[in-house]
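Hi support team,

I submitted a single chain yesterday and got back a structure, but I'm not sure I'm reading the token output correctly. Could someone confirm the output below corresponds to the sequence I sent? I've pasted both exactly as they appear in my results page.

Thanks,
R.
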Amino acid sequence: SGIEMKYAMLLCFLLTLHPSGLPAITAEEIRRYQAPGKDGAVIFALDFDRPADTACQYPPGFSISRHEGWNGSHALANTRLSPTEYQVLSLPLSPVPPGQKYTLRYKVRSSGLQKHGKQENNAGIVCIEYRQDGKWHSGDYYKNPPPGPEWHEYTRTFASKADTRLQLTFYLRPEWTGTVYYDDISVATAG
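Hi R., thanks for writing in. Yes, this is the structure output for that exact sequence:
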């Protein structure tokens, strides 16, 4: 909105006046800036198009797929060939105050996704996990049916818990094979 744009323009102006007196800030941080106290402040965002995203070493089964993302951009791919493999990619979220509500948004599609065995029709795909003292504490595991070849956007709401750290985890539930593509992932404050 106009208020956020004014804050971003003011911040850019201040940076040009006193570049040595202010901490470094990126264009992306300015774009995501929200006025204090407003819902929707983004605390985490990934679109897999930055050079740093493509240069990362990912765990086995995960990679950046060029031009497989939403609107032809890059996407994170999670490929599992054997139903007995279990691979995850967990990314820590910024320290957050307990009790704060957040909205997780993400786009997914799949290729060749198949269920092996009697497991329910829930591929898993993404979850929020809570860690305490470096160990798993609990998680919000969303029931995601297989998305298919077309992009689907999901929105999930969760709240932070006292004395825990949040992490965003990408995975496929056991007994599933195929590839899931992820794009335009964000976590923002809500209500």
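A quick pointer for reading it: The CA atoms of residues 134 and 165 lie 9 Å apart. Let us know if anything else looks off.

Best,
Support desk
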